[in-house]
From TrEMBL:
Keyword Membrane: yes
Domain of life: Bacteria
Transmembrane segments: 44-65, 77-103, 115-137, 157-178, 185-203
Segments forming domain Sphingomyelin synthase-like: 161-222
Key words, A-Z: Membrane, Transmembrane, Transmembrane helix
Pfam family, one: PAP2_C
Protein name: PAP2 superfamily C-terminal
Highest classification ranks of the organism: Bacteria, Pseudomonadati, Bacteroidota, Sphingobacteriia, Sphingobacteriales
Listed InterPro entries: Sphingomyelin_synth-like_dom
Signal peptide span: none
Amino acid sequence: MDFLQQYILFVYFYTHTKRLTYLMQFKPFTWQIAWDYLTFRIKFILGMVLLIAILIFIPRFFLHIEAREGKVLNDWLLAVIPAIDVSTYIFIVIYAIVGLMLYRMSKNTMMCLTALWAFIFLCSARMISITLVPLNPPEGLINLADPVLSFFYRSNLITKDLFFSGHTATVFLSALCLEAKRDRQIAFIATGIIAVLLLIQHVHYTADILAAPFFTWCCWYLGKSVARL
């Protein structure tokens, strides 16, 4: 095959895959159709490999975080909120939104790709921020034993993964990734509810929760950019 033929093939496959990525932004493709394209397969498989690597690394990381000492912030808002155990409500809201998100992702390959890479960036950003901002739990903390996170962290008590709030970030990321107007409205409302409940239980400082949407938006934007490459 001479150079001209190779160049023509390259242009064809490049424009074809770019056109697919463009179309996927406006029309949900089935998994069978999307999987036929190399670009989608590469981004999806690479994303899954990175996500699995992060999940394998996370237990060691959080065990290290729990062993170190950090600073206790003077949070005036938490000081006036009595600590109440609202764990059940927190889990109901979070896993309802996550369940909705997973269902929508199963029907929309572009949304799945965006959420996958956004979550990878989100996990990475949290590990960096938690490392750079060592904090001890707020005073009056009521332990929040998350059955799913406990499985991955291999610990029943993780209290120092504070800046920024992973619970708030997860729900807010779902709100950003969801496409239906009603779904987004529900997820945004759920984000506000989770923020309030976390403060009531004294699981996070106010700063942890206020910072979460900013970092999450940045990670969502990066994830969307990777999905559209």
